[in-house]
Amino acid sequence: MSDLTDRAVIAELQQHIERIEGPRGRARIVLPFGISEIDRRLPGGGLALGALHEVAGGGNGAVDGAAAGLFTAGIAARTRGKVLWCVTRPDLFAPALSQAGLQSDRVIYLDGGDEKTILVCFEEGLRHGGLGAVVAEVARLPMTASRRLQLAAEGSGTIGIALRRWRRQTEASDFGQPTAATTRWRVSVLPSTPLPVPGVGRPRWLVELIRCRAGESADFELEACDDTGHLHLPPDLVHGPGQAEGGRRSASA
Amino acid sequence: MLAADAAAQAAGLRVGMTVTKALALVRDLVIEDADPAADAAALERLAVWMLQHFAPIVAADPPDGIVIDSTGADHLHGGEAAMLATIVAKLGGVGLRARTAIADTWSVAHALARFDARPSYVSRPGHAATDIAPLPIAALRLVPEGVDSLCVLGFTRVGDLLAQPRAPLALRFGPELGRRLDQAIGQIAEPIEPIRPRELIEVRRTFAEPIGAPETIARSIGRLVGQLCDALEQKGLGARRLDLICHRVDNRVQAVRAGTGLPLRDVKRMTRLLCDKIETIDPGFGIEVMTLTATMAEPLMPKQAVSTLVEEAVPDISDLIDLLANRVGEQKLYRVMPVASDVPERSVRHIPALAPETGADWPGRWPRPPRLLARAEPIDTVALLPDHPPVSFVWRGVRRRVKRADGPERIFGEWWKCDPELAAVRDYFRIEDDAGERYWVFRAGDGEDPLTGSQRWFLHGIFG
């Protein structure tokens, strides 16, 4: 009986918080990953559209951002409409994005030169509302900037993804600083799915949900995006939430 | 004889020769009467073209030059040096050989373009005096007699004159010399009187009191845009380039240029584009006249809006593209299209962000890395030849053991593009180290024949 009362109280408090946070009707729309293990952990059952999300690579991926970039491309591929991708370093290779489901016609690249310009253009893209997703590769994301981006995303319903990428691995400690982003992800590479023959199998990632507003953090071991941008559970893990073998590792060793 | 190009000078012809002497030197010389009026008209036409393509303030600088105020316009072309390169390339395309220079003042740019050995020269800001000092006196745009008499006195370089006290010079040569020197080093303003072709659609506002506050400027821009849109509508046109020119009370001119990807006749969007640039306008003591010009206009037809229920409206993002393009430059905003080439770095090309969709895509048979290094980096490897992947490799000082590998994917040189690639081969491997990091490496060569490449290994990309 007391359990029911507790639940009622909690629900009432949650409604109260939502009233304080303001009208978020559109922010409620979510983009599910299609994997119940992940979607269950995210409030609303998926990645919130109309919100800012942060993605970074782990280990050497903090510098090259390759796995994080593909993870982001997979999310962007599952939205509708054009995608604005703001870069500072021109090393993004478009054929790989196309293989993650993001066709070349859908992506508009913006080579901003410096981070300040990137943030300005990022916000402008989010505010417009006609885009499916806006991605920006930034190293620093101050609280003020992230708050502005989050508000812009809430206003338009466009999903914004800040792909955090640093020049040096030591600078990646910046990822511990608080921002206004709704979720924060870290994507690290894992050895690929073993094949019965020599060769590289399907890439695997350790996807860590480090921070999630109104949710709890979690780790997932997943297979990389297919050509429609969908992640998959590794076949040996489909029938149970078995712990990722090996877990976190330092890639530069 | 009034002009001589490189071929003519090689034949011994010089400007100022008589026709009979020239005929004696070159037997089958074709003689044409000089037509200064037609030359001036052609120069004017070229200036109008420059106005439409490069900057809002352009003037013909007879007999053979065009002066452009590039302030606030060069970023649209990727910077000053890139803008000069574009100008030279575009003029080269129609058979004109151009020499260009950018400097602080008109005089210095004029002198550098004509008397500097480099065909394109971008001077650093604040170096007007040092740039013009080593140039000959003739670079100062004086009358020929003045140049001669200065040479008689032993002055050969502009620097000699800059070092002299002005009073005796003015006494001997009149005020013109001092004026030219001051113009060169930027002590006297030398305004450019911009060309205004009659067919341009232009609206103008004169203020009773000079304005300066950003809000006031924004309000005036709004009114000007309204008038301009009315004028454009009467002709059925849409603007591709908008130039806002502010004449200040101190007789200086501030210009703002905005470009659009598609013809545009929308008051709100045009105002937004121009108001975005207000911070670049320096009102000084106030602006007394503002003109707004549609420098480039194209026909704009009314479009059918979505009228059925099944058809879904595609969100229009051209306004966002215009806004961003005016902020970062048109070249910095692009889409990437496939090119039919197996060489990875040649398989992409940039097209304008608003180009029509093609639906083309890369053949997806082979995995491609999301990060491709701008230049393949050499790595030290231990590998069995000819067709095994490396066993281990050292990249950026870190040794990595290869656990799994895929390949080779052999890519042949494109012999139809250049001869040295006739035999060239690259063997690409996708390798994974024991930490799970995946890389794209290649060997230049097939592992056997030295003609096919250096047999060295390179790291080209990073897989996710």
Any overview of this molecule?
The complex is a heterodimer of chains A (253) and B (464). By secondary structure, chain A is of the alpha/beta class. Chain A has a domain at 22-32 and 49-186: 3-Layer(aba) Sandwich (Rossmann fold). Chain A has helices at residues 2-21, 36-41, 61-64, 66-77, 94-99, 115-128, 143-156, and strands at 30-31, 47-48, 52-57, 83-87, 107-111, 133-138, 159-164, 183-190, 204-212, 218-223. Among the domains of chain B are: 1-34, no CATH class; 201-299, 2-Layer Sandwich (Dna Ligase, domain 1); 371-463, no CATH class. Chain B has helices spanning 6-10, 19-25, 36-53, 80-93, 106-115, 128-132, 144-152, 158-163, 166-173, 175-184, 214-235, 267-275, 318-328, and strands at 57-61, 65-69, 100-102, 120-122, 201-211, 237-248, 253-264, 287-299, 333-338, 348-352, 371-383, 390-395, 398-412, 425-433, 438-444, 457-463. The termini of chain B are far apart. Chains A and B meet through helix 4, helix 5, strand 5, helix 6 and strand 8 of A and helix 13, strand 9, strand 11, strand 13 and strand 14 of B. Strand 5 of chain A pairs antiparallel with strand 9 of chain B.
SSE arrangement:
The complex is a heterodimer of chains A (253) and B (464).
Chain A (H helix, E strand, L loop, with lengths): L1 H20 L8 E2 L4 H6 L5 E2 L3 E6 L3 H4 L1 H12 L5 E5 L6 H6 L7 E5 L3 H14 L4 E6 L4 H14 L2 E6 L18 E8 L13 E9 L5 E6 L30
Parallel strand pairs in A: 3-7, 3-8, 4-5, 4-6, 6-7
Antiparallel strand pairs in A: 1-2, 8-9, 9-10
Chain B lengths: L5 H5 L8 H7 L10 H18 L3 E5 L3 E5 L10 H14 L6 E3 L3 H10 L4 E3 L5 H5 L11 H9 L5 H6 L2 H8 L1 H10 L16 E11 L2 H22 L1 E12 L4 E12 L2 H9 L11 E13 L18 H11 L4 E6 L9 E5 L18 E13 L6 E6 L2 E15 L12 E9 L4 E7 L12 E7 L1
Parallel strand pairs in B: 3-4
Antiparallel strand pairs in B: 1-2, 5-8, 6-7, 6-8, 9-10, 11-12, 11-16, 12-13, 13-14, 14-15, 15-16
Helix pairs in contact in B: 9-10, 11-12
